[in-house]
Amino acid sequence: MTHARDERAALCDLFDRLGPDAPTLCTGWTTSDLAAHLVLRERRPDAMGGIAIKPLAGYTASVQNGLKAKHPYPELVDLVRKPGGVYALLPFLDDAVNTLEFFVHHEDVRRAQPSWEPRELSEDFERLIWKRVSSGTRLMLRRAPVGVVLHRLGGGVVLGGPRGGARVEVTGRSAELLMFCFGRQEHARVELTGDPHAVDQLREASLGV
């Protein structure tokens, strides 16, 4: 098993346990919406454009709603549980692309529930997450209004956001820094230090891929 497969399986188990109407951190989406999104992402490449390109978002939303209407919730979860499309044919691509995707969405469901706490991840998974965060910081923080200095507990520093002006230091474990950089600032267990106005700007910014 890979970390991508582990996170996929854990997310689907949580989907099964919570049912179709549980909240998530994805604004306006329940667990059934998130499951339909993940099916679309792997099995409907014609509709993927709207995930990142606003003019195509209407078509993507209509396909996603169509998947929800066509498949009962248990079927949607079963479709998520098994890699689809190119990821079924190329397991190495599943690991490369889906490790962070499924980790973040697993946390999107976990952290929307009452009394959640961060998971204890293996050291190799923490290192892998930090490696991916380090290489993707410029992309994930491209809309940051201030400079950002990420400090990983256990070692590691990386810069993102604008090069000039105010800077905010963000300190936490790899997984928490990932959630922060993916736009889940409110639900990331990190410490922010810097000018209070700059900190507020960063907390409210639209971050992520």
From TrEMBL:
InterPro entries (UniProt xref): CHP03085, DinB/YfiT-like, Maleyloyr_isom
Matches recorded under SUPFAM superfamilies: DinB/YfiT-like putative metalloenzymes (SSF109854)
UniProt cross-references to NCBIfam families, sorted A to Z: maleylpyruvate isomerase family mycothiol-dependent enzyme, TIGR03085 family metal-binding protein
Name of this chain's protein: TIGR03085 family metal-binding protein
